[in-house]
Amino acid sequence: MMLFTAISAMILLVIAAISEAIIDIISHNYYKSVFKYLKRPGYWNPDWSWRNKYKFGDKQFGEKFKYSTTLFVCFTDAWHLFKAISKITLMASLLLTGAQFGLSVYLLPMFIISKIIHQSVFHLFYTYLLRAKL
């Protein structure tokens, strides 16, 4: 069981690392990546894809669908999808590793709590604390 858990945790870490690599390459070198050859550049190219969250691609018209800018943002473009995959797999890997120390009963609650805390702190800082006051 320990070997299976260790291998599973490593696989999850690899998925997280690949997801982060995708995020970085499309963010900083989209036109030098393999992703420029894929159909739907409006999904893959972050220069455009951020508009997918909004009706008509314009923030002034509001969310494209309920929670498209928050809870379900991972369904709007590649950057947010792979960011969600990265976060979830990294947290799951850490929790699986914690299971080796007898925390297996708490895996699901710890995962949920970790996700809530992470998202809440991110939202607080991104939306309020790190914004420049105009």
* Overall structural domain count: 1
Q: Give the radius of gyration.
A: 17 Å
Q: Which stretches of 5+ consecutive residues score pLDDT under 50?
A: none
Number of helices: 5
* Content-based structural category: mainly alpha
What sort of overall outline do the alpha carbons produce when their principal axes are compared? globular
Q: How much helicity do the residues have?
A: 55-70%
Q: What's the pLDDT, averaged over the residues? A: 83
**Quick one: how many beta strands?**
0
Task: List SSEs in N-to-C order.
Answer: HHHHH
Largest sheet: none
What would you note in describing this structure?
By secondary structure, the chain is an all-alpha fold. The chain has one domain (2-104). Helix content is 63%, strand content 0%. It is built from 5 helices and no strands. The protein has helices at 2-28, 41-44, 46-49, 78-103, 107-129. α1 runs antiparallel to α4 (78-103) and α4 crosses α5 (107-129). The longest helix is centred in the first third of the chain and has 27 residues, at 2-28. The termini are far apart. The mean pLDDT is 83.
